[in-house]
Design a protein that fits this description.
Blueprint lengths: L1 H4 L9 E5 L5 H9 L4 E6 L2 H10 L4 E4 L9
Parallel strand pairs: 1-2, 2-3
């Protein structure tokens, strides 16, 4: 995952959406790499998002079916 992220050519994105974020482990890395960006974690599992909310509080967490999700 870190290797893939290192290939993203954007230096300072305004917004990042992590689809199927699960417990937010990768989302937390995104927050560390781009602290000024608005970050949204989207997952269909309320239990996964509950865990994510406990571990990282400065990210917007959304429960949604990622197949039907669209920017808001």
């Amino acid at each position: 995952m870190l290797d893939l992220l290192s290939h993203i050519p954007i230096e300072s994105p305004n917004e990042i959406v992590d689809l199927s974020c699960g417990t937010g482990m990768v989302t937390a890395v995104l927050r560390a790499w781009w602290p000024e960006a608005r970050i949204v974690g989207v997952d269909g599992s309320a239990a996964m998002l509950d865990k994510a909310r406990q571990d990282v509080t400065d990210i917007e967490w959304q429960e949604a079916d990622v197949g039907n999700w669209g920017p808001q």
